[in-house]
Structures are given as C-alpha cells and as structure tokens.
Design a protein that fits this description.
The chain contains 13 helices and ten strands. With 331 residues, the chain is α+β, with helices and mostly antiparallel strands. A hairpin with a 5-residue loop joins strand 4 and strand 5. It is elongated and about 65 Å long. It starts with a helix and ends in a 6-residue tail after the last helix.
Length: 331
C-alpha cells in the first residue's frame, strides 16, 4: 500500500454530511462546527468562501475548496453581503450524526425553526433559480484516528483545486445524482464524495511549485517509493536497512542516503514513527487489546521496548495515551 492510500483510509464519507443548495442572492451560510475536512464545490454560479481569520476566496463554477478544521467558515454571495448568516450547526455540519445527509436547500420546508429546519434559503423567483443563482455542494468529513491526522498535518487551512482534471468527471456525476431522489442515493453520494476528495488532494499535491509533503514526491521514486510501500505493507516485519535495501535491489548505503534525502529522515526512524501511529489507533480502537498485544501487532516482541519507543515518539506511555483518549464518564 502506498503512503497516501494508507493515510486517507480513515477519511471516509460514511457518517459525513452531504448537502446541495441552490441559492439566489443575497445569501450567507455559516458553517459553525469546524469539521476536520469540508469540501465545497460550486456547480453553477459563484460565491465567496470566508474562512475564520483568513482572506476571502472566490469560488467560481466547477472550482473546489477544501477547508481544514477546526476553524469555521462562511459561504456568501459577496463579501459584505447584506444577508443574515444562516447557521449550519449540529444538523448541518456535524459528521457524527450518522449517514449521509442530502438536502436540496439547507432549510427544508416544514422543518424545525432552527438549525437546518424551516423555510427555504432561496431568493429570486422563490425556487432557488433566480438571477445569479449559485448551486453549492458541501461534504463535511469526519477524520478518525492518528493515521489520518498525519494527512491533515500535510494540508493547509484552505486548499484550492481549480476546474479541470480528474475531478471534473466526478462533478458531472455529483450534479446528476443530486438532481434526483433514488434508492441507494446515500451510498452513491458517499462514494462520489470519497472520489472527489481523493482527486482534489492528488491534484493539489501535484500542482507545480506546491508545498507538498516529502513523502508525496518520495513515493514516486523507484527506490524510495518501493521502500515506503514495503514499510506500509509490512510494518511489523523485522526490518533492518540491509533487509529493506535487499528488497528494493540497491545497496544499504544507497537506500539510506536516498531515503533520508527524499523523506527527510532515515528509514528506521520513519518506520518507528509509523509503527507508533498505528499503535496509537490500536490502543484507542481495541479496548480488549493489552499493551503486549499492540506491541506484537506493530513488530515489537518486548512490550517494555515498545512502551519506551511509544513514549519517546508520542510523549506518553501506552497506558497514559489510551486513558487520555477515552471519553469522560457521563455524570
């Protein structure tokens, strides 16, 4: 498995919000919950995305912006709009609500008065397709575990992908799917959101002159890329630099230098950090697993050696880390 596939596997649209709104000016949607990742794309029209504490970003038709939480943001028809912001809160942007939510308009007719219910956010002719109408699609992603946090750390607060490229095909499917209401739509929208996010991130990482993480370019190197795939495919194997060099078909010194030059750290240092990331998720997700169980799962036969390595990398021993991630008991 390549590095990117490993890091993004915990970012899935299942349990996310998906919404499509057709809005006529003036309008303002305030996304208040600060989801870890929120993908915003305009099918038709245009609008301004105003992130918390950052300059506004114009979003034209078939352009996409990904916003990294926990900051909030507002989407408006124009900077300084006269519209009263509509808060998209728990029922609009909290991923933990479960299942994909698709709404044609943030406020459904006959719904509750607050949150996402009651009254359409429409102008113009009252149907959301008046002069200057904008069709906005938003997907708010949950991001679970330490593995996916490593991906988040590689992203800026606001990430823009212009029109064109592989994501255009996904946009065509999204536009067609949100226009109908058919059985299985939630599953289709979930998968389209996953596809859209992967395409957007790949295009952003590949843009000329961009500040991409070291592992992104390194995984395309014929030697270091193979080494990274081996470490991610078999993290518990008893790796040495010599063993890794043998599997990649180069000398030990060649692998060590090339890996350090491209990734920014020696192969076994990278492996240790990756093992501790895997261990952190196992400690939280598998309550019945002992520290020794987790140690073996990530390649340590000695739980004491594992605990020392975990504390060195994560700043706390495994038991302390597990305790700090458990939810507080309800009072």
């Amino acid at each position: 498995m390549d590095v990117f596939s490993d890091l993004i596997r915990g970012v899935r649209a299942h349990g996310s919000l998906f919404a499509s709104s057709t809005l006529s000016p003036p309008w303002a949607l305030h996304f208040v919950d600060g989801a870890p990742l929120t993908l915003c794309t305009v099918i038709d029209g245009a609008g301004w995305l105003v992130p918390e504490g950052r300059p506004p970003e114009l979003l034209r038709a078939r352009e996409t912006i990904v916003v990294r939480g926990p900051g909030t943001f507002t989407f408006v028809d124009e900077v300084g709009t006269t519209a009263e912001p509509i808060e998209c809160g728990e029922d609009c942007a909290t991923p933990e609500q479960g299942g994909t939510r698709h709404r044609l308009g943030w406020h459904d007719p006959g719904g509750d008065a607050g949150g996402c219910g009651g009254g359409q956010v429409y102008g113009g002719d009252g149907r959301g397709n008046g002069p200057g109408a904008t069709t906005l699609i938003v997907g708010a992603y949950p991001v679970r575990g330490e593995i996916s946090r490593r991906l988040l750390e590689a992203l800026p607060v606001v990430l823009r992908a212009d029109d064109g490229g592989a994501s255009d095909a996904v946009l065509d499917h999204l536009a067609a799917e949100v226009a109908v209401d058919t059985p299985g739509q939630q599953v289709v929208l979930d998968r389209l959101l996953d596809w859209m996010l992967v395409c957007t991130l790949r295009e952003w990482f590949d843009r000329p002159g961009g500040e991409r993480p070291a592992w992104w370019a390194a995984q395309r190197d014929p030697v270091v890329g193979d080494a990274l795939r081996l470490l991610h495919a078999e993290p518990a194997a008893p790796w040495t630099v010599a063993a890794l060099a043998g599997r990649t078909g180069v000398s030990r010194s060649t692998l060590a230098k090339r890996f350090a030059d491209l990734v920014g750290e020696p192969p076994l240092t990278y492996l240790t950090r990756w093992r501790m990331t895997l261990a952190a998720d196992l400690l939280v997700e598998q309550d019945d697993a002992t520290v020794a169980d987790v140690a073996r799962a990530v390649g340590y036969s000695d739980p004491f050696g594992f605990s020392a390595a975990f504390k060195r990398v994560r700043g706390a021993n495994p038991s302390e880390f597990r305790g700090s991630r458990r939810p507080s008991p309800a009072r």
